[in-house]
Task: structure prediction
Amino acid sequence: MLQNITLSAEKALIEKARQQAQAHNSTLNSEFRRWLAQYAENNEKTTDLDGLMNRLKYAQPGKVFTRDELNER
Result:
């Protein structure tokens, strides 16, 4: 079910965005819905990345290895 929302922007910006959408054989509404879906998905990916980084924060980068340690096999 679609729900209406109200947004505010400069009139010139809205007109420019409408022209851009029209150039892509689309509408401003459909472009906004596409953007909103991508925005929501990116947020989920960021949350996943944050979780991964939290699980890996025990690893401390920056250890300096000696020449012998680097050459060990």
About this structure: The two ends are 61 Å apart (CA to CA). Helices lie at 11-23, 28-55, 67-71.
